[in-house]
Amino acid sequence: MIVPYAHRAAITLLETILGAAIFAMLLGALLGLLSRGSSLGSREMEIFGLQADAQRALIRFINELQEGMELVAPQPGNTLPYAVIRDKLNRLAVYSLCRTEVPGEYALKVDVGSPQGLRSETLFRGVSRLTFSSLSDGAVRLHLILGAGDRQHAFYTQIRMRNRSAASL
Question: CA geometry: angle at 156 spanning 155 and 162, to 5°?
C-alpha cells in the first residue's frame, strides 16, 4: 500500500541529503560571489591609489616645467621626445623617457645638472609616449600618453614658463 505524501510521518534520509546538497551549492555560490566582489573592490582601491600617485607626480612635473625660465631644447617650432629647460637657479633639467622592465612602458626621468653635480630622479612610470613641442623659448606643448594596452590616457596641454621674464635680466 502506497501512503500519500501528505500523510507521511517523516522526511526520508534521501530528501535530507538532497536538501543539504542544494543548500551547500547555494552557499558556495554566494561565498564565491562575495569573495570575488571583495577582491574586485580591493583591486579598484589599488588602481585608485596608483592613479592618485600618478596624478601627484604629473602635477609636480608640470609645476617644475612652469618654474623654468627658458626652453633650451627643442628649438621653437620643433618637437622632440625630450626637453632641456634652464631654471631660475641656472640649472639645466633634461626631461626624458627611459625603458622599464615592462615592454612598451617607459619611466619619465629628470636629470638636473648644476655646478654642484648631476642629480637624476624618476618622476613617474607607466608612460607609453611623450613629446615636447616648442612654441617659443618660454612655452612648450606637452603630449603625454599614460598606460599601456587597453588602459591608455592621453594628456595634452600647453605650459608657459612663469619665470620667463627673469631670463631677460
Answer: 115
Please name which of 60, 54, 46 lies closest in space to residue 93, comparing C-alpha atoms. Answer: 60
Per the confidence metrics, is the pTM higher than 0.85? no
130 beta partners: 144
| Euclidean distance between CA atoms 114 and 125, whole angstroms | 25
169 residues of the chain, pLDDT tens digit each: 565 655 666 778 888 899 999 999 999 888 888 888 777 777 777 667 666 777 787 888 888 888 888 888 888 889 999 999 888 777 888 999 999 888 888 998 999 988 788 889 888 888 888 999 998 888 889 898 887 667 777 888 888 887 655 544 4
- The DSSP line for 124-143 is EEEEEEEEEEEEETTEEEEE
Helices (H), 10-163: 13-66
Q: Determine the Cα–Cα distance for residues 87 and 75; give it in Å rounded to an integer.
A: 16
Q: Distances from the Cα of 44 to the Cαs of 1, 5, 50, 154, in angstroms?
A: 64, 53, 10, 21
Q: Which residue has the cell 619611466?
A: 107
